[in-house]
Specification:
367 residues, 7-stranded mixed sheet, globular, alpha+beta
Amino acid sequence: MRIPIRIKIVLLLLSSCLQAQEKKFNIHTVAFYNFENLFDTINDPTKFDDEWTPKGAQNWTSEKYNQKLINLARVLSEIGNSDNPNAPTFIGGAEIENRMVLEDLIRQPKLKKFDYGIIHFDSPDNRGIDVALLYQKKSFRPITFSAIPLLLYKKEQPLKAIEKDKESDEDLTEVINEKATRIFTRDQLLISGFLENEEIHLIVNHWPSRSGGEKRSSPYREAAGLLNRKIIDSLQGINPKAKIITMGDMNDSPFNKSIKNALQAKANKQEVPEFGLFNPFENKANKGLGTIAFRDSWDIFDQIIFTESLLQKEFSSYQFWKAGIYSPTYLIQQSGAYKGYPLRHSATEVGFSDHFAVYIYLIKELK
């Protein structure tokens, strides 16, 4: 088995002598990025993808599609490289049309050398967008993976279709299938396998949007949080020490009910109980940082949350080190009405995404 890149990290450890010690560690980056409308140019009659075709509203040509792939590959290859020269071992992604666009993505020159594998399922989302996991084959061996549906049903009168929601400015096409009571949204992708010789579980999410308004749509995301918690509880029922990471575009901040009540995620390590969850991005939100901007207000919808089993102070196995938001200058709009926002696609420019990526580091001491 190929040994991952080795780095030196200086950690101040609470030992009996309270002295700084230099230790050598293996490191892996776990990242999540909303790819924002990674569509090919081919019209699929089973999906609402007409906008993302050469004759559609976005005038989505092969040249633009290829530039989008180049842009995404650059971001993905660089996430977390301030502390880890290797590209992320795991990349959770959202807003992906199909497997083919992922195959095109990992063939890009900036990603090809990392030999990524793909885990993807088509979801029932009306827009035809899915979640997926990319993983470096040299470090991770998947054993089982499944798409777990989020079953939501409309109890009120169907929402009327309008072009944009007044509160969130998001399309409403994904919210309601008015011919049925089912609300079609993204599945939750569960992957279990071995990071080197350690068992690890990952859940990739893209929770229901805020279409119709934050308060009105909150129960859908709370249901997504409850499903997430149920998956985690099931894994912990099999192995109480299971290392579980859930990541995604939650369409909620770390302070919303879906995260605080349904998932019961904590902001402070000291408050995380056995079997509990830690959310390192809540404190970042407290500092005014964000992954997405709307009407000059920043929020952190993109989060990576994990179990207490990854918060141990002894690093003989992989444990959490620190978290970050990847927002270099080239990902930021430099002029115009949206100056300072993430640089997304526009009529004149093929951008990156309307989200910034998030990441955490897992480290293990080398003996």
